[in-house]
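Fig. S4 source data, part A: sequence.
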Amino acid sequence: MARLKNKIAIITGSARGIGFATAKRFLEEGANVALWDIQEDLLKKAKAALNLDDSRVKTYVVDVCNQSSVENAYQAVENDFGSVDIMVNNAGITKDAMLHKMNEEQFDQVINVNLKGVYLCGQAAAKRMRENGSGVILNTSSVVGIYGNIGQTNYAASKWGVIGMTKTWAKELGAKGIRVNAVAPGYTMTEMMETVPKNVLDTLKAMTPLKNLGQPEDIANAFLFLASNEAKFITGHVLSVDGGLTI
């Protein structure tokens, strides 16, 4: 039986990478999916690649940093599909620099998308899910949020903040029947990694106990588990999917 049959899911940052893989996996398991992304051209390509009609998947151009954009899109999803069961906060960016060279704009951009964006989308979901008495909120953190990384002050701060919000929301919303969890991916072969030199990729593989990099599907499967009833007694947890990197 499909694990997410007839469930309605919003996935942010789902035009490519982990978000797209998660959308594809959720659709395979019977969910109807709202693809949220700020890049309209990539959304169109994602929708075409999924090759499903509007009754199963629709696209929405959303700026997760803007409350009005989030609220309007959420309302549109409810109008199109009905009450949302699953909110996956996956949208994220990087603007890397060493601390002594990082400028304020680089810091603010990453915090806005990766932290404020999760807050705004999570808040929109929580308001409705509280009224419904059920729901699942899933957030994308990172191994970098757990153990830090050179040149990623902004990213590490945002992803550590996501963990803090996840645990706080789990405590706040549990009594209302809402589960909140996070996934912390390790180094994963998304489009952002395609420009990384081979010698760097080889170094990352060597650092990982399983001696390989993750695939977007590996992270998508973790989200699928946490979204399903198989995880009905799990909340406030951060699931590392990193090949053992944080051991």
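Fig. S4 source data, part B ends here. The mean pLDDT is 97.
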